[in-house]
Amino acid sequence: xxxxxxxxxxxxxxxxxxxxxxxxxxxxxxxxxxxxxxxxxxxxxxxxxxxxxxxxxxxxxxxxxxxxxxxxxxxxxxxxxxxxxxxxxxxxxxxxxxxxxxxxxxxxxxxxxxxxxxxxxxxxxxxxxxxxxxxxxxxxxxxxxxxxxxxxxxxxxxxxxxxxxxxxxxxxxxxxxxxxxxxxxxxxxxxxxxxxxxxxxxxxxxxxxxxxxxxxxxxxxxxxxxxxxxxxxxxxxxxxxxxxxxxxxxxxxxxxxxxxxxxxxxxxxxxxxxxxxxxxxxxxxxxxxxxxxxxxxxxxxxxxxxxxxxxxxxxxxxxxxxxxxxxxxxxxxxxxxxxxxxxxx
Amino acid sequence: xxxxxxxxxxxxxxxxxxxxxxxxxxxxxxxxxxxxxxxxxxxxxxxxxxxxxxxxxxxxxxxxxxxxxxxxxxxxxxxxxxxxxxxxxxxxxxxxxxxxxxxxxxxxxxxxxxxxxxxxxxxxxxxxxxxxxxxxxxxxxxxxxxxxxxxxxxxxxxxxxxxxxxxxxxxxxxxxxxxxxxxxxxxxxxxxxxxxxxxxxx
Lengths: 345, 202
What we know:
Chain A has about 350 residues and is mostly helical. Chain A is built from 18 helices and no strands.
């Protein structure tokens, strides 16, 4: 029998899921004539409260993006607050993706000596982060940022500091952060009772991230050993040995090497993009796959904790779609161009 | 006796002849300068001529950037962009036939290796690949602007010398030569008359 707390949370999430904007409405928004029409249409949704506070003249893609991110963070942390026990631990760790993104932004800014202010970070509730962001923002360099993270989950970053100094690229630290994040989430997801759905989604996300990194760095011409170092150490369906041979092989051989679907199809899409047959960004097929899996999980994990993770992923997908629409409208991109970047069923 | 302000004397004639020699040499030099500037302009026009095709590539790179913006959002792109190093370039003046033109010395190109996102990296690489050519075209356009100004001035100078100053000087020389010839004849005639009067008196 499922713990009552999880059943409650899943039921609560079923209600929250109804707040998500449907694929049809997202497509309708992409067809809007202007950004103003998009923001007006969103007034009837969960974003309406924040958007209605904006003076009409101040409605631009940057402001809307902040609102979408703020709503996304609120959705993540609302579910986390409602959870209990190990599920709360998992969701707290799962929500750390925003914290990780903020740390990455601080590291990038400190690396180049640029001034970064708090509004440039994703707003996070203080109670769910051990990271002292005001202190990080005032740090003089990357070394100090890493030193300030010593007492948090991100302590292993210290070990990568020397590699960062040698390579002189922030990617070393950024991928280490991803490794720590996914490692922790995977560890807690494995402990969740009846957490098959959760493990499946987290595992697929790890696999997709590893594939994306492996392919994009191969295209850049990085050495297989370096790619291997950067990949997330936890794996799901793609074993370490498979990833290792993938980094060694030619890109054209990847589809045949990855016998499991949908990874083989993704590899074919990547080869097609690299050959110039498609102009969509590299990340799109991977993100589309992830959100398709989440959509599927809503049906298969109907009463499972996986439903909660699927909801969170779909909230993220919605935020990404809305950001793409707002920016696309602001930049005056054609409807077809915007639709191509959307993650819809 | 004078033409304009010049007195009709042999001294003036000599000075005018020297002046016309000097002006003709000046005109030749200006013509040479004009030809060189025109040749330089033609050379630069070939570079600027690639601009149309370059604009297309630049627009394609901007499209990639726009797509990256859509995929990642403004805040993420802004953050990724902060890792890109600065472009090093110096602009210094260079003299081409006495005309100061800009010369862009390209230094280190921006490094994009820290960008983690594939779409941001693709956009950055495309734009980075075009920066060098963009600077070359900007340099050529800047040079053409300065040279065209000087070419116009030189052309005016050559025209003024050819059509106004040299013809005026030649006219003046012809006039003075004519007047001097007349004066010589008058003098010769006067001398003959004086000689005849003296002969009759004796």
